[in-house]
């Protein structure tokens, strides 16, 4: 390192450099910039050696590591330090007692997401050059502001997310009154209440970004009467502001780049003045009660839009105006509204689209064939509409597709065999009227994570190539007309976490190879997040670069900009209920449902190795044998249903070790013996869990167990056969021969004793012989005469 003593800037971000480097870096005496962001470093910072000797250092970035402890006193040696970023670590202690108040050259200070004691503004009284304070997640105490509003510095950027108490929220407004140079103000997740602070816009004319999301602002939105040309970013989402949007909104903020007014309770129509927002790239107006149609002012005037989100409103009429000028649009979310009619042909002009979500509307007609020209599409969500007709083969042209959801419609016909997208990850075609076999559709989709074809009219077998889908995590084929044996190739799907083959006509035995699949829900964390990032466009990058040093931008952007996503929803029956799993919760769910088929044979004991599974349903089959005692290893199981089979034997007492079990059902089998001890979870199950087993006894059944067997509660094979109404074959043969002999001897004895009965018996035998003789002779003559003729 001594050879690099003249080096001025050193960037080691996202490397695996050893922490000992900080002990050695002191020889690089000319160093002005040292950045070690995201290097996985932990422990305390060195106290005296190495990095403490960097007296010329002007920029120090140690964010996104796992450093802990207090800030070392030797930090005071860096008197020229201007930029100090230690965000997203585990530092603690008091800022007041740290070296930071003595670093009078500091301009940029990023302390977010650490464990510092409550920070007071008095710590920064002497830092006259301080321009930026980002302290998200740290408690900020501002009581001293009531006595001294002028702290000696003028901030350009202030971020304080989730850091203010109710009292501090009131006092902070006085502090902001005296900060005249503010360009970025980020105060989400606090307790601000009352009217929207219009004075912030009037007093801070240089303000470029304002974020007040997730507070408690109420009343109506009041805007200044004059234009605010410098404001580029406005986020007031997740508040309780009501009423319509002011009609002059687009005139007051003509240069907006990013606007988020979602989940506020706005109503009425979208103002025509939105057509003046020619520079707007991100618009989120979701979860309000806007009504009527989307005006052409919006689709023609906002020509720079990249993301348009109008979900969860009361918009109606045609899906999109015929005239539009949105040639740069990447994502379009119009879901959960009241749109009717066919999918507007005008959308075919939006060839740059990455994702469309028109789900949960009242759209009619067929899927348009012109979608083949939208080759940039990564995500299509059209679920819960009234679309009909076959799935057009033109969709096969969308080679970049990652997400396809056409569920809950009236689509019919067979699945196109060309459905072999190389990048597709999630396919939902459930609850339609699709017919025919699963031929070669999806055969080449090697990256497929979710295949949901349940509730259709599909026939035939599960194809053998299913084993080639090595990334498959969710396979749902419930409620079709599939048949045949469950192919062993399913056991090759090592990452499977949800398997639903219920309500079909599968027969044969349950493949014991299923135990090769761990059904570990942790696999989904790396493969299926429940949603996909589609065209996430970080708008702040070029905005903030004009305000601060380029290295300051990235830390603030991630908090302010929400990412556009498509959520997938999966239904799975567990705990006797059809539950819907949407989003991240899919990471934690795993289960097998083979119920309502024609499966036979014994339950493989190897299924007890599925220690991570949450639900197992084998009910309504023809399974025989006993319940495997290995099921006591299912430590994560929450729902176990073995009802309506032909299982026999006793219920393994080891099952009481299943502490997570919430639903247990073995009703309507041939089980005998005592029910499990009413202990822990088994103390919560009622009679319905055991009914339909006549030979079961013990609580909660109203049938006490009798102590006939003293040696064991488990019946022997002979006892079991007798209990089920069967007799040993050897005993049967002996009893039959004895009974027949006794009957024959009885007849002989009666005829010997009574001569009248004996004579009548001989006459009867003679008559039978004569009748048979004449019958044979007469019929023989008739046959001979027939042949001669």
TrEMBL record:
The keyword Cell wall biogenesis/degradation does not apply. One of its GO terms (cellular component) is plasma membrane. It is found in: Cell membrane; Membrane. It is a single-pass membrane protein. InterPro entries: Leu-rich_rpt (IPR001611), Leu-rich_rpt_typical-subtyp (IPR003591), RLP_Defense_Trigger (IPR051502). The keyword Cell membrane applies. Pfam families: LRR_1, LRR_8. Keywords: Cell membrane, Glycoprotein, Leucine-rich repeat, Membrane, Repeat, Transmembrane, Transmembrane helix. The chain crosses the membrane at residues 528-548, 731-754, 760-778. Belongs to the RLP family. This is Uncharacterized protein.
